[in-house]
Please model this.
Amino acid sequence: MVSIRDISKHTGLSIGTISRYINKSGYVSEKSGEKIEAAIKALDYVPNEHARALFSKETKLIGVIVSSLSNPFFAELTMYLEQNAKEYGYGIILFTSDDDEEKESEALRSLKAYRVSGIITTRTQLRKELEELNIPIITFEDNSCSNVISVSADNYLGGQLAFRHLYEKGCKKILHIKGPSQFYATEMRYEGFIHEAEKYGVNVDVHEFLTDYKLDYDLKQMIKDIDLSSYDGIFAFNDIAATLVLSYMQHIGIRVPEDVKLIGFDNSYISGLVNPKLTTIEQSAKDIGFKCIELLMNNIKGEDVSQKEHLVPITLIEREST
Amino acid sequence: MVSIRDISKHTGLSIGTISRYINKSGYVSEKSGEKIEAAIKALDYVPNEHARALFSKETKLIGVIVSSLSNPFFAELTMYLEQNAKEYGYGIILFTSDDDEEKESEALRSLKAYRVSGIITTRTQLRKELEELNIPIITFEDNSCSNVISVSADNYLGGQLAFRHLYEKGCKKILHIKGPSQFYATEMRYEGFIHEAEKYGVNVDVHEFLTDYKLDYDLKQMIKDIDLSSYDGIFAFNDIAATLVLSYMQHIGIRVPEDVKLIGFDNSYISGLVNPKLTTIEQSAKDIGFKCIELLMNNIKGEDVSQKEHLVPITLIEREST
Model:
């Protein structure tokens, strides 16, 4: 690996001069600057980011802690976080937490050791630790840290839109399959949905899934006590849950949308892959990824971040399942 | 952030002593060691990995360049790479390449700057650059770099198994939807499939998808010239392609498996979500993630890595679509 020493040998200039030039930390004559530039090109020198980090106190790395990449929404979000960070010249160190407090805590500890310039977490379990961490942080899907900037989709409105859509399609016997109650985002969807139903004077049954989708998910166990055929409209808390329910209903002979209308949440790519294609509430992983990185970069640069809570708009995407 | 300076103030010991202790780089008395340990605990000091990296020439970071996280197989693989790296005390810096040479080249350049201890790439376009890079590398789904260690599923055998399965199910008019020809893995699946068909004296039609799945994928454009109803057996190069074709066939009234039997590849989670559930060839993201990290760690530690090509076993998973 080419080092600053090799540049020094090649140009005949001192290491101090070259370091000043590369780190823009003091005066270097124009002539020397040109020599150094030429040597950097000739030797294909890449600055050592660790040396730069020690010197400038600022790494070009941010930490991302994501619940799981087996959920396609979080996988897409991670991709957009990486792509947007790159635009600002930052790399991401990725940790998955599996929504486990211990794993999230370990990840935070590692990210501190790597001296990342900032952190983005999803569905954090560690509100207190985050508040005490003295670096820029953005939480996705949790607005309960008082001094931390949060981004989330407008989940409450999403729940309202989902109800109104089923109602307008004529559904009378409605079921909401809600997410695990520890998750802020799915709790908001649930609240928006049932409050809207109350407004319209419609009674809604609610069935809670106790865990989010995992690769070894046992759906039959999750819905064994529900008689799905007694409903004509179902709102599931995300597209995976909706797809599982869709597949199960087809399996036992319930037709979608003829017998039951079904709506999901996320607009992750699976909603367009299944038959019938899912009606869903879109939260744009692309917009959210952009917003998280933009806010984090502003925070790192020390710009005004007085607004703590940021809601990203959502949209109803009508397809074939309703 | 607590620094080595604070430890020095707290203990009254010199920075040199503390640095020797933390980096295990020279003699420190037992008594001083105990004082330092106590201060580390009291102040919640986390060693700066950048300082450690400069000193030891070894970062606790590896680079991962993955094609795309919108492909669920690669998302799962990334998750397992992260989880396995963590077991060895390593974090991952993640880049997505979108199978774009320019983006992969930028990612390699950034990873060099971060002085990662090793790199794992998927579906590389930069064989020459990788061969010249003087750090441990594992390529996934490309064995054409002569001096680089490669891991891949046994794709050729997978193609053979797929053919034999359709054949045993009585299929006579068989179509293979193959992946873009620049991808080593899908090319192997194709070769295994058609060579096996030749052995059995069966003629197979082949239709090539020109790109891998993207979020804005236009399936109708991809298959507009094929009369799917003229076949009774289809092998698609991955589960997403299979799911797209399944959904499209159901849409135009072709029944699976009654009219056409369909088999995918990957056993990513969508194969279990759709109705009918997909028969597929499993390549285990878990096993592959484990193997990649194990080989990379052996390589970083300087252990014997004379075997360059590593094939991970694959399995036929029979479900409802055949």
Remarks:
- The mean pLDDT of chain B is 89.
